[in-house]
Amino acid sequence: MSKTLSFDIINLIYNWRVEESRKRLEEKLENEIYVTDLIYCPLKYHYQKKYKEIVIANAFDPVTIFGELIHLGVGKLLSNLLGSNNVELEKEYEKEVVVDGTTYIVKGRVDAIIGDWLIEIKSSKSDLNIPHQHHILQTRLYLWLTGLKKAILLYITQNRVAEYIVEEPVSDGEVSDLIRSIIAKSPAPRYSWECSYCPFSTLCPSKKTS
Questions:
Q1: For the segment 4-39, what is each residue's pLDDT rounded down to a tens digit?
Q2: 68-72, Cβ contacts within 8 angstroms, sequence gap of 24 or more
Q3: How far, in Å, CA of 103 to CA of 94, rounded?
Q4: Residue 146 CB neighbours (<10 A)
Q5: Residue 209's pLDDT is what?
Q6: Residue of 126, 113, 108, 124 whose CA lies nearest to 37
Q7: What is the pLDDT of residues 45-77, one digit of tens each?
């Protein structure tokens, strides 16, 4: 005998991802730059503003959802094992930076903080060449943003679970240079592999095909 469900899991996940993506786009100020904007191709920062529908559509990408669920699961596990009072999850930070006379707000959401340790969680199908340089840069940016001095970069992959220590925050000068890179829209892409995963590659004149 079949039963009619009073809820739709796929619809719940879809609405969660799409609404979160739409909210972040709508609330983002003109002078706000996310940590994730600083580590990838600078053109993405500008395309996200111009082609918001593509950003929202990409929010339901299964790879993206898988990564989000890994983050939520690991965060919940840490909270259960260490106690919710000892673990801060998904906490947002921001810092003002003046670059060439203009004030920018750099914002980031940290996966977890345990004591004086920052925890950055990454998921991947492969463990090839981990830790990746852009993930190290992202973690260093979070250290700069929070004022903490040490971090654990945790990878959850199909081949292994591994953690790496990151202890060098970026400098104010490095952050300024990354912001200047976004303003100049160069280099585009920042890494040769980015175009293969970029939702804007179908309209980007700087797309690398090899």
A1: 778 899 999 999 999 999 999 999 999 999 999 999
A2: 68/17, 70/121, 70/123, 70/156, 71/111, 71/121, 71/123
A3: 13
A4: 18
A5: 85
A6: 108
A7: 999 999 999 999 999 999 999 999 999 999 999
Gyration radius from the chain CA atoms: 18
134 Cβ partners below 8 Å, 6+ apart? 39, 40, 190, 191
Name the token pair of 195: 């175009």
Record the pTM: 0.94
How many other CB atoms sit within 10 Å of the CB of residue 7?
6
